[in-house]
Amino acid sequence: MANPYESLPDDAFWRTGVAARDPLDPGNLYQPKFAIEPKKRIATAGSCFAQHVGRALKSADVKMLDVEPAPRVADPAIAARFGYGLFSARYGNIYTARQLLQLAQEAYGEFTPANAIWERDGRYFDALRPGVEPEGLGSPEEVMAHRAKHLEAVRLLFKRCDVFVFTFGLTETWCHEESGTVYPMAPGVIAGDWNPDETVFRNLTYEDVMRDFCAFRRLLDSVRPRRYVVTVSPVPLTATASGKHVEVATTHSKAILRAVCGQLAERFRNVDYFPSYEIITSINARGAYYAENARSVTTRGVETAMTLFLNAHGLAPVAPASGTDLSEDEKLERAFEEADDLFCDEALLEKFR
Amino acid sequence: MGPSFQILGTSHAGSWKDFVEGDDWPGEDYARFSFFSLSGKYFGDLTYDIETGRFGTFEEDPPAIVVEKLLENNESLNVPVDPDVPVVFLGVHDGREKALECLLFHRLHGGKEPGDDVALISEPFFRTVARDIVFATLSDHVKNFRDGQNTIVIPKPRRLTRHFHSKPKFAGLLDADEALAEANAIIDEIIKEWARGEGVELIMQPKETIDPNGMTKEEYRKEPTHKLNAAGELFEDTAHMNVEFAKLMIEELLAHTGSRGKDA
């Protein structure tokens, strides 16, 4: 008697596709929907995990865009503390699709954020990227001037990039109720002061995330069509304001983000999903890709995921050049390893427990 | 007869030597000076490539002279043994000046040309990177000469000057002169911080020599101390210190060590 499972490949079955696999072998979890050729210009954005994605791509034979690099005389580790070299522009962590959409709309003059400058001890911070200037700036005017230059760079990035890689991080966000402006961090964590009547907690729904990313894609494709690779960060929430247990809240958020990514890849020909989430969280890996804090992803985990991505696209990592290039790469590598959470605004929530 | 100073440094130390040995110097009533200078090429461990914007080392192109070796063999080089006061006179060949100028440019303009992919940098970022550069290069300089002695360090005789083109105020915040003044003040602070950490005495550049409040570039170029080239031909050197500058520096040094009152 014939049945539809008979002719399926081994990876369609859990026993042969997962349980029989070596725990640290990601198998063939990823088959790219489209090729990323070496000449294509790639941009990255997203949550903290997106920094790992960007770093892996930099080592590969692709053209990674960075429209706001630090001056070359700056030590890369210092530059990273100020938000340089982490993503394709100096926008800091973009945790939600809403934040991404808002950035694009602001860059094209379609949106003006409310309460965009936060203050702390007489210093002023860009509320939309509060972590990129750890000491803040001297005046609100200076913040606005730097933001204007940043948005100019973001427009350039959107114009240039052929492939946009976005790592979804969170559904939880803090929102200026009247204007709808969302911030990457709650006011009061890095700077500013939380006024509960003004800024409220929002946990974005599947529909919200889907709608926001579709609107972002539509906006960028109106500049010129391009391709997108979406991923979900496997890094759990540092803290939740949802009122639920953080583990339950994490699953809730990640399930929504994963479902949106799957749907985006199903619906649009120019969107592909890369399963970094599945690789790192795989039950078969038995937690081997997580650090002792059960949250941060280890270097080995990042390497495993990104090697799969690069191999699938035939983009072998390029051996570092000799001399000063090697030294700079090593410095940045070390900075990442020593202070993984340092460049992650959300990790600052740790200090409240 | 006053104390003996051994001035160690780059070509600027050589220029100072020309002044002390010239007619304008009143002699050894106040102090005895000996000089030891190397050309910039052989001085520091660090270089700065303006084209690539990277620091480099002499590893690929080793210097023909190693400073430590020279000092070990100082008798043959007529470097006095055990001077009362060793003074390191910091030069401009350590890559520091070029790097800081480059950094200042980014503070004011971002990229070198419109559309360059370089962000404007903030004052805190400028300060942090400048500190990193200054600490690395000054320590490198001083360790070449220091041998457990109390060492006086005089930072480079030139400050950052306005190499960038004029432009309207950046977003109404900062013009070129303001940026320059801010940068030089920051660098002075950093050098003082560095000196405290190294335990060296520091003599800052006399304020009378600092443009625009004191000596201007035109005045600096008058009466060069260095008047003859290696071939003994007349050579008006305007790249190093002039007579007035040298006098002020020496007065500052003598006053600092109590060898002579500044107004004497």
Would you kindly provide a written description of the structure presented here, covering whatever features stand out?
The complex is a heterodimer of chains A (353) and B (264). Chain A is built from 10 helices and 10 strands. Chain A is 37% helix and 12% strand. With 353 residues, chain A is of the alpha/beta class. Chain B is of the alpha/beta class and 264 residues long. In chain B, α3 runs antiparallel to α4 and α4 crosses α5. The longest helix of chain B is centred in the middle third of the chain and has 23 residues. The radius of gyration of chain B is 19 Å and the shape is globular. About 16% of the residues of chain B have low confidence. Chain A: This is GSCFA family protein. Chain A: It comes from Pseudaestuariivita atlantica. Chain A: InterPro entries: GSCFA (IPR014982).
The averaged pLDDT of chain B comes out at 67
The helix/strand class of chain A is alpha/beta
C-alpha Rg of chain B (nearest Å): 19 Å
Number of domains of chain A: 1
Tell me roughly what share of residues is in helical segments of chain A: 25-40%
Taking pLDDT < 50 over at least 5 consecutive residues as the criterion, the unreliable ranges of chain B are: 39-80
Proportion of helical residues of chain B:
25-40%
Tell the overall outline of chain B. globular
For the residues shown, what is the average pLDDT of chain A? 89
Beta content of chain B comes to 5-15%
Structural class of chain B: alpha/beta
Shape of chain A: globular
Q: Span from first to last CA of chain A?
A: 60 Å
Query: How much beta of chain A, percentage-wise?
Result: 5-15%
Sheet with most strands: strand arrangement of chain B: 2-1-5-6-7
Protein name (chain A): GSCFA family protein
Domain GSCFA (chain A): 41-309
Short description:
Chain A: It comes from Pseudaestuariivita atlantica. With 353 residues, chain A is of the alpha/beta class.
Features:
heterodimer, A: 353 residues, alpha/beta, 5-stranded parallel sheet, 3-stranded antiparallel sheet, 10 helices, 10 strands, 37% helix, B: 264 residues, two-stranded antiparallel ribbon, 7 helices, globular, GSCFA family protein (chain A), GSCFA (chain A)
